[in-house]
Specification:
This is DUF4064 domain-containing protein. Keywords: Membrane, Transmembrane, Transmembrane helix. It comes from Gracilibacillus dipsosauri. The protein is mainly alpha-helical. Helix 1 packs antiparallel against helix 4 and helix 3 packs antiparallel against helix 4. The chain is rod-shaped. The longest helix is centred in the middle third of the chain and has 38 residues. The two termini are 19 Å apart. The protein contains four helices and no strands. It has one domain.
Length: 139
């Protein structure tokens, strides 16, 4: 069975992850830092120092999360190119399932839907591949 649709879904999901990661790293991270600095301007020195340290730490977490999603997008581009037709790749099943779970844990509903659709279609075609292999053995 051809795996073209699963390939396309994973590529679209990887592209979505690429866009969201770049937005997170560049737009959201800088917006969060500037808003945090703006909120801390009229406070006393001790509170401002503690608050700026907290804003800095959260900004680093935002950057690390964006970097994690960016690396995941690159991995998914590579995974999509390595999908083989008429073959069951068990590591691929695990990867798509884990990445779909990570998408829903990060509240990325669009990414979750794309990867879950790819996962379900991949599993359905695996069943068809197993049944056709059994029929060939019985014939």
């Amino acid at each position: 069975m051809k795996r073209g649709f699963e390939r396309k879904l994973i590529m679209i999901g990887a592209l979505w992850n690429l866009v969201t990661s770049l937005l997170t790293i560049f737009s959201y991270n800088s917006w969060f830092t500037s808003q945090g600095e703006k909120q801390l301007q009229n406070l006393d020195t001790n509170t401002m120092m503690a608050g700026s340290q907290m804003v800095n730490n959260v900004s680093k977490i935002i950057f690390i999360f964006g970097l994690f999603v960016l690396i995941g997008a690159i991995v998914n581009f590579l995974v999509a190119t390595k999908i083989k037709d008429n073959e069951i790749q068990y590591k691929l099943i695990i990867w798509i399932g884990v990445w779909a779970i990570l998408q829903i844990l990060s509240m990325d509903v669009i990414g979750f839907v794309l990867y879950m659709l790819a996962f379900v279609l991949y599993m359905a075609k695996n069943k068809a591949i197993k049944l056709s292999a059994q029929k060939l053995q019985n014939a």
